[in-house]
From TrEMBL, chain A:
Species of origin: Salipiger thiooxidans
Protein name: 3-phenylpropionate/trans-cinnamate dioxygenase ferredoxin reductase subunit
Gene3D superfamilies named in the record: 3.30.390.30, FAD/NAD(P)-binding domain (3.50.50.60)
Cofactor dependence: FAD
Chain ranges of the FAD/NAD(P)-binding domain: 5-298
InterPro entries noted in UniProt: FAD-oxidoreductase/Apoptosis, FAD/NAD-bd_sf, FAD/NAD-binding_dom, FAD/NAD-linked_Rdtase_dimer_sf, Reductase_C
Automatic annotation (TrEMBL), chain B:
Transmembrane segments: none
Protein family according to the UniProt entry: Belongs to the adrenodoxin/putidaredoxin family.
This protein's name: Ferredoxin, 2Fe-2S
Domain 2Fe-2S ferredoxin-type: 2-106
GO annotation, biological process: P450-containing electron transport chain
Keyword Signal: no
Length: 391, 107
């Protein structure tokens, strides 16, 4: 039987999508969406890209207020969920009007991530870029000429660096790993983006950890001091899994899910950045930080809750990053220990012992889309298949 | 304001007053028009805002942008010569009264 009251904790793009898809699939029961931030649910990806340049907050909103009324969704902004009482089937929350409890038949955890605070002294001097409020602060700071230090050479740090440098600021990126975006892309792709940023005049400090931040800049591992008017911390994220852990749910690099995206309690699902789930391809446990995973998880959970079924989640991951004039697109997911083969300029294949696992492209949407289809197919793809597409 | 009419696959029409400068995708999402998803927010990454520009308007909306053809390859419904990604059609005064048709599926 389908549940009578579904509560979604977390009003990011994934949490919101779960409510959209539930109504779309015909779920007619009570539906509540709870978010910690003020205002309407919004898109995060543009915060490190278009929003920094254009500053149009209204363009970020995913749905208008009227959506919640017309779809009969109770949306509770500025509300934090403080505990899950699984025995009673209730959550405890704290909102603008004080504390309360809410019963649920099914709970969806979409709690996302928060910025990782690495062991660096003086981090209180650094800015974050995670929420709209963070992005507003940074936008104001970008209004006057600055020297800017960015700790972390991943997607967010580099997208921000490209915008800041494009606006004429002096920018330095500090990355502890020997290459950029090392967790996500091939060495060849790291090199492409290192050339891009250096070509723009951004200083890259690779293989050098930041050890301290102060009001005047950043101290590096080699003892040197980099002068900066402000510092952005973009050194990765940690999943918000404490709520689940305190409720006794299994946690393993995020809320642990089975192939049907259920937690260890069949009355609780989880989705998006906060959740780890078995990779449909090889069963390895993965946790993805992307709009694609959040929304595909949400659609899968909504379909299961409204229509039932024993299917396992099987969507192909994809990612993107816009840095200056380079649009990086990744079809598939390459874990550690994956090898790389350059197919042609701006196209890199990632392979493991079972064949093609991911395709990275720069400014080549055609090959990206064809790769997505190739990797989504029922049969494992190989290097030859990709070479054929790229020819 | 710029008026836009969205014709759903089943023929149902929704007419909205959109803000000049918004894209056809943004206007649909902001006004809660079903049938346009716009998952990537207009970054030309997802092909879930596919629409067919009404024949009478095809000339005024202009040709597809660079990269749009490639992304449309991944669209869930049939592609015709009038297919566009609605995130790439910016609403100007000249497009007041625009009519677009929506595909059966976006995902």
């Amino acid at each position: 039987m389908s549940p009578q009251h579904i509560v979604v904790v977390g009003a990011g793009q994934g949490g919101l999508q779960a409510t959209i898809s539930l109504r779309h699939a015909g779920y007619a029961g009570r539906l509540t969406l709870i978010g910690a931030e003020p205002g309407l649910p919004y898109q995060r990806p543009p915060l490190s890209k278009a929003y920094l340049k254009e500053g149009r907050a209204e363009a970020l909103m995913l749905r208008p207020q009227s959506f919640f009324e017309s779809k009969d969704i109770a949306y509770l902004p500025q509300t934090t969920v403080e505990g899950i009482d699984r025995g009673a089937g209730e959550i405890a929350f704290h909102g603008p009007d004080g504390k309360g409890r809410l019963p649920y038949d099914h709970l969806v955890l979409a709690t996302g991530t928060r910025n990782l605070r690495p062991p660096i002294e003086g981090l209180e001097h650094a800015c974050d870029l995670r929420t709209l409020a963070d992005a507003e602060t940074l936008r104001t700071r970008l209004g006057t000429p600055r020297r800017i230090a960015v700790i972390g050479g991943g997607f967010i740090g580099l997208e921000f660096a490209a915008v800041a440098r494009g606006l004429g600021h002096e920018v330095a990126v500090i990355e502890a790993a020997p290459r950029l975006m090392a967790r996500c892309v091939s060495a060849r792709m790291s090199e492409h983006f290192a050339d891009l940023h250096r070509g723009m005049g951004t200083a890259l400090h690779l293989g050098t950890p930041a050890v301290a931040v102060d009001a005047g800049g950043v101290t590096l591992g080699d003892g040197s001091h980099l002068a900066a008017d402000f510092t952005l911390l973009a050194a990765g994220v940690v999943p918000n899994a404490e709520l689940a852990a305190e409720a006794g749910l299994e946690v393993e690099n995020g809320v642990r899910l089975c192939g049907r995206l259920l937690t260890s309690d069949p009355q609780i699902s989880a989705l998006g950045d906060c959740a780890s789930f078995p990779d449909p391809r090889d069963g390895q446990r993965i946790r993805l930080e992307s709009v694609q995973a959040a929304t595909d998880h949400a659609r899968f959970i909504a379909a299961r809750l409204s229509k039932g079924g024993e299917d396992h989640y099987a969507a192909l991951p994809w990612f993107w990053s816009d840095q200056a004039d380079s649009k990086l697109q990744i079809a598939g997911f390459a874990g550690p220990g994956t090898s790389e083969v350059v197919i042609c300029d701006g196209v890199v294949a990632r392979l493991d012992d079972r064949g093609l696992v991911a395709v990275e492209t720069v400014n080549n949407a055609g090959i990206h889309m064809k790769s997505r289809r190739l990797l989504s197919g029922g049969t494992p793809a190989g290097l030859d298949d990709l070479v054929q597409i790229a020819a | 304001m710029v008026q836009v009419t969205y014709v759903a696959h089943d023929g149902a029409e929704t007419t909205i007053d959109a803000t000049e400068g918004d894209s056809v995708m943004q206007a649909a999402v902001a006004n809660d028009v079903d049938g346009i998803v716009g998952e990537c927010g207009g970054a030309m990454m997802c092909a879930t805002c596919h629409c067919y520009v009404d024949e009478a308007w095809a000339e005024r909306t202009g040709p597809r942008d660079e990269g749009e053809d490639d992304m449309l390859e991944g669209a869930a419904s049939e592609i015709t010569e009038r297919s566009r990604l609605s995130c790439q059609i910016k609403l100007t005064a000249e497009l007041d009264g625009l009519v677009v048709h929506l595909p059966e599926e976006q995902l």
